[in-house]
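BUG-307 | component: ligand-complex export | severity: low

The export step for phosphoric acid mono(formamide)ester jobs runs without errors, but we want the raw record kept on the ticket for reference. Input record follows.
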Amino acid sequence: MFGKRHVLSMRDFSREEIDSVLDLAESLEPYARGGRCDALSGKILALLFFEPSTRTRLSFETAMMRLGGKTLNLGPAEGSAIAKGESLADTIRVIGAYADALVIRHPKEGSARLASQFSPVPVLNAGDGAGHHPTQTLLDLYTIRKESSLEDLKIALVGDLKYGRTVHSLAYALALYGAEITLVSPPSLEMPAPIKADLAGKGTRVRETHDLDSVIRDVDVLYVTRIQRERFPDPYEYTKVAKSYRIGPESLAGVQEGLIIMHPLPRVEEIAPEVDDTRHALYFKQSFYGVPVRMALLKMLIGDRLD
Ligand code: CP
C-alpha cells in the first residue's frame, strides 16, 4: 500500500497511509528503545543536512542503527564538492548511487522536491526552508495518538505560523483527521493564505487569533513553535515579535486536565523551563517518538519485507 516513494509533503499522503506508518511505528517502538532488529541490515541511508539539526538528523541516524542499517553523512557543505560549485542535482545523482535512500534538509523551499527529480532512490524531506517537514508531522501525529487522541481533536498551533514548516505540514495532516484548528500568531506571522485556503477547501474548522489566553483553556493540544530568527529578512522585524508568547506555569491555570503541550524543538523562550515538570509537557517524549516513526518510514521505504 505504501510502496517505494518520496516523502516530500503531507499533501501527498492519505489518512490510511499515515495510519499505516503510525501502526508500524507502534510495533517498532520496543526496538527504538534498544531491542534487536535487523530489518535494514545491509542498507545505507545518506544524510544531507545543509541547515543545522539535532533531532531530525540524529533520530534518523538512530532509527537506521536500531534497524541494523548504516548511515553516510555528507557533513557541512564546506567539506564537500558543493564548496567547489557542484550543483545540488549532481550531488543527489552521485549520492543516490551510493545509498538506498536520502534525507535532505535545505534552506530553500522546494529543494527536496528538486532532489527527488534527480534521485534514483527515495528522498525524505527533513525540512525545506519555510516549506514542509513531513517526517516531523508523522511523529507529531504519533505523539497525539498515543498521548491524547486524534478523534474530535481541538488543537492550537502557536507562534511562527508564517515561516514554520512544522505547522504547515501538520495543518495539512490535521485536516485529514477532521481536527478543529486554532491558529495563534502575531499579526505579522499568520499562516500563509494559500494554506488557509486549502484547509477551508477541505472543510476544516479553522479560527484565527493573536490572543493565546483566549484559547488555551479550550484545546486538547497546544502545539507551540519558536519564532525563527533565521527566517526573517530584517532582524528588526524579528525583535518586534520575538517575545510574543511565553507559556509559564501561570498560563496553565484552568486548562483541561488532559492538555498536552507539544513543541518540535528547539525552544528558545516560548516555554518556561518550569513547565517541563508539569503533566502537560510532552515535548521531550515527542522528540523521542521521532525514532520509532522514522524507523517505520525507513522500513516501509527501503525494507525488503513489511512484516
Ligand atoms: N524538530 C526539528 O526539526 O528539530 P531539529 O532542527 O533539531 O532537527
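Assignee comment: Attached the raw record above. Residues 53-56, 127, 136, 264-266 surround phosphoric acid mono(formamide)ester (CB under 6 Å).
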